[in-house]
What we know:
Layout: E1 3-8, H1 16-29, E2 35-40, E3 50-53, E4 75-80, E5 84-86, E6 99-102, E7 110-119, H2 127-135, H3 137-141, H4 156-166, E8 172-173, H5 174-177, E9 182-184, E10 195-197, H6 209-216
Parallel strand pairs: 1-2, 1-4, 2-3, 6-8, 9-10
Antiparallel strand pairs: 4-7, 5-10, 6-7
Amino acid sequence: xxxxxxxxxxxxxxxATWVERLARGVRRHAPAFHRIVCLTDLPLxxxxxxxxxxxxxxxxxxxxxxxxxxGLTEGPTLLCDLDTVLTGPADALxxxxxxxxxxxxxxxxxxxALLRWEAGDLAGDLDCxxxxxxxxPERWMAPGSCGPVPNAVHGDQVVIDHLLRRExxxxxxxxxxxPDLLDFYDPRRAEHGPVVIFIGDAKPDTATGPVRAAWDxx
Length: 218
């Protein structure tokens, strides 16, 4: 079963609205996903979305490390950030195989905004990431734990990239496999897609034009 996982950690900018709008876009533009799961510590109720409780109180983006918990999914699994907007056909995200978004600022580095693996497959599962992080969360959350890296901010994707490299796992990058799939939001132009990614302070709720309309469900 092909699954999309997103993570909603309470106390920040995001709430159930973001889950509902992402799920609506997935159902419309990426129906190859049979299941949508939200890992959260909130009492979430969104039609068509399976709520799974977070087990740990890992702060902010570190909660995303729970997406790699063993047994959550079976088959192709995509970790997808809540601030992703689909505006056109995006079933390519559900294809089998280890793949990730290449970091916008650092070529060759993994971004956790979009990361896909084969859950339940001995050669393609990423439960090793959860095992490593859960064993020493304070260590991995500490800046410098991954040695010298180009990223100015130490976050989950720095650790994910480091642990993947340690395991000898090198994902394909979506941008190279599907050159026309991902598009980075730019307020200076109207048309975007089919998978719109937001970098920095830009977010769907402050977007304009067709992207905002897509996020609103128009």
